Amino acid sequence: MKKALSILTAACMALSLAACSGGSDSSSQAADTSSEASAATSEASEGTASGTSYTIGICQQQPHEALDSATQGFKDALVEAFGEDGVTFDEQNAQGDANTCSTIINGFVSSGYDLIMANGTTALQAAAAGTSEIPILGTSVTEYGVALGIDGFDGTVGGNISGTSDLAPLDQQAAMLSEFFPVAEYPNVGMLYCSAEPNSEYQVEQVSNYLTEMGYTCTDYSFSDSNDLSTIATSAASECDVIYVPTDNTAASNTEIINNICLPAGVPIIAGEEGICGGCGVATLSISYYDLGYATGEMAVKVLTGEADISTMPIEYAPNFTKKYNPTNCEQLNITVPDDYVAIEG
């Protein structure tokens, strides 16, 4: 009994001291971002120690290397913060089907999960339609304003949504195409993408504008899903000198089809991301999807611990980009690669 009273007394004294010093501590944390990061880690650890556990629903749009890496990075960040026992994941894959995305999200909502991670544009759209209450973090989404139909998007979604973007500088992608394939020798560029993905349309429009200013003639070759990809890709390969494929989830899941058509035809591809480039392209401006997912996980920690208000969290972007090339395809197409490019490892 004496021991219990001593513990209770110490706890009361600690609470009293915290109440007296709360104002100055808050000011110090607001001025020091490193202190905020430490506070988040401390709060996460305290929550786990006290038995707090979070359940997070992960809806991945479809299986392919980039999205898989982002999901893994997200999970690793949360496990590092909360421990294996402090977080439970319900990870589901929609296999590229929009209706399945909605079904998955509705299940998360009805279960009252603490947070939803939407990996891919279609997953994000389903999550946004499914709940305005549960915090939603997107990743592997190129342009949030386009994906969510926000006019005059200023970098912050607001409400219950934030996340990370995989958008690489589109002007630099256009410049990359020009570096490898000068307009005098390769004047016709085919823009191959899935019309069901609004972020793909956005990338194609922007890159087309840059290339047109350089003197290229750009033609859209859009496919509705994987069923008509082969037909559309065949047309593009027969009519164009070079093809651009943006960061497109459907294309990423079907690079073998694209490669089997374009490589024998001798038509090179500049890709929007490393997974597509490794499957069917010659060069890309690459980001780490694992790091992108990890950054999303760090955002989730701040939301769950109450350190950050998701409604005011701006979208975060990949900090680094690397010029990479596909050595196999470059060799088969007799393409000379500049010295500042890094080979994609098979």
TrEMBL record:
Keywords: Signal
UniProt cross-references to SUPFAM superfamilies, sorted A to Z: Periplasmic binding protein-like I (SSF53822)
Disordered: annotated span: 28-49
Signal sequence annotation: 1-30
Protein name: ABC transporter substrate-binding protein
Organism: Gemmiger gallinarum
